[in-house]
Amino acid sequence: MKESLSLRFLYRTAAGRACLKVLVSPCISKIAGAYLDSRLSTWLIPLFQKKNNISLKGIAVPKKGFASFNDFFIRKREEVLFDAEDSHFPSPCDGLLSVSKIRDGQVLEIKHTRFSLGELLKNERLAEDFRDGLALVFRLTPAHYHRYSYPVDGTVVGNHRINGVLHCVRPIATESFPVFAQNSREYQVIRSDRFGRFIQMEVGAMMVGRITNVPVRIGDKVRRGMEKGYFEFGGSTIIVLLKGEGIELNEKLLARKNAEGEIPVKVGEWVAVKR
Question: Which residue among 98, 184, 192, 236 is the active-site one?
Answer without folding.
Answer: 236
